[in-house]
Amino acid sequence: ATPTSVMVGTGHAAELGVLFRRGEALQALRDIEVVALDKTGTLTEGRPALTDLVLADGFDRAEVLSLVASVEERSEHPIAAAVVAAAKSEGLAVQPVDRFEAVPGFGVEAVVGGRSVAVGADRLMVRLGLDLSAFTAQAERLAAEGKSPLYAAVDGRLAALVVVSDPVKETSAAAVGALHDLGLRVAMVTGDNAATARAVAARLGIDDVFAEVLPEGKVAAVESLRASGKVAFVGDGINDAPALAAADVGLAVGTGTDVAIESADVVLMSGDLNAVVTAISISRATIRNIR
Ligand code: ADP
Ligand code: MG
Fold first, then answer.
1. In the chain, count of helices (H) and strands (E)?
2. Predicted pLDDT of residue 216
3. Residue 78 CA to ligand 2 centre (angstroms)
4. What is the annotated signal peptide range for this record (predicted)?
5. Which of 31, 38, 236, 248 is catalytic?
6. Any idea which architecture 49-165 has in CATH?
7. Which of 46, 48, 127, 235 fits as disulfide partner to 82, beta carbons 3.0 to 4.6 Å?
8. Span(s) in the chain for CATH 3.40.1110.10
9. Best probe residue, ligand 1, of 77, 209, 218, 244 (max atoms within 8 Å of C-beta)
10. Does the annotation mark 38 as catalytic?
11. Ligand 1 atom closest to Cα of 215?
């Protein structure tokens, strides 16, 4: 690539809200065959809301929601904001907590007013030795609708099924379709549970799904997709940073975290994934002109 043509290409891209942090990425994007996308905050709005709180026998809604929100208040995960907002909208107090611990990819735990409280994915509850079978059928039904089932435990007992839903961005389905039109394979990589991820992927026409991926596992997903060709990864979160760095081209959603932006080759100024299509199209047009 001549320096001038790369300058023209990256300049044109910048006008369309696609910032190349490294000029080499313009050339590298041309050879991409697979686009892997993070789900939460990339394909979805990243602003989940609490949709259901299904209590286990003997538990009170206000009590459980208050305990869970108190723990989540200390977490920076988008799920946490959903739970805290729901508690506040029901006029519930957030209580001080001790011994707060975030277990990446699993959930959060703390002691609230002397009671031990845990909130998170099914695997967190399994780790605590809890039996989830009382909620299995409901969790599966909600996951098939694209909602995310989580669980709350209080004093070592399963207390509630906590369900959040994060709307898919209006623009995501069209962006996936346009990536297919460019001849690319499209994958989703997420820490969310498998049935939820499959439901969202099916709605968007996504080809491959990597779900229940632990934070360190996103790099492994990128490596495994490399079997099909060069991989671009698109993400917004702190936990996407290693995959953004490991991919052949990393594209960060500019509405995301600074850590993601610093690990990426390309920054998309808006949250609209059609910018990925723009970036690849400009790359192909520019590099074609100079070969
Ligand atoms: P993702 O960004 O794809 O959600 P994470 O690794 O951040 O991936 O989280 C994986 C899963 O761990 C979440 O989908 C959720 O089930 C659980 N989890 C993580 N943090 C929390 C939290 N603060 N509250 C409840 N569940 C959580
Ligand atoms: Mg994300």
1. 12, 13
2. 85
3. 9
4. none
5. 38
6. 3-Layer(aba) Sandwich (3.40)
7. 48
8. 49-165
9. 77
10. yes
11. 6
Q: What ligand 1 atom has the least distance to the C-alpha of 78? A: 23
Rounded alpha-carbon distances, angstroms, from residue 99 to 87, 89, 108: 21, 26, 11
Ligand 1 within 6 A of 27 CB?
Answer: no
50 token code pair: 């609490």
> How many residues can be counted in the chain?
291
Report domain 3-45+168-290's class: alpha beta
ipTM of the complex: 0.96
Q: Read off the pLDDT of each residue in 56-70 and give the average, rounded to a whole number.
A: 97
Residue to probe by mutation, ligand 1, list 73, 192, 218, 236, most atoms within 8 Å of CB: 192
What span, in angstroms and rounded, lies between the C-alpha atoms of 183 and 186? 10
- Which residue's C-alpha comes closest to atom 16 of ligand 1? 121
The pLDDT tens digits of the residues spanning 247-288 come to: 999 999 988 889 999 999 999 999 999 999 999 999 999 877
Rg of the Cα trace of the chain?
21
Distance 223 CA to ligand 2 centre (A): 19
The neighbour count for residue 111, using CB atoms within 10 Å, is: 16
Please determine, for residue 145, whether its predicted confidence score (pLDDT) is greater than 70: yes
pLDDT digits (tens, 9 = 90+) for 17-59: 999 999 899 999 999 999 999 999 999 999 999 999 999 999 9
For residues 253 and 272, is the Cβ–Cβ distance under 8 A?
A: no
Domain with CATH 3.40.50.1000 in the chain: 3-45+168-290
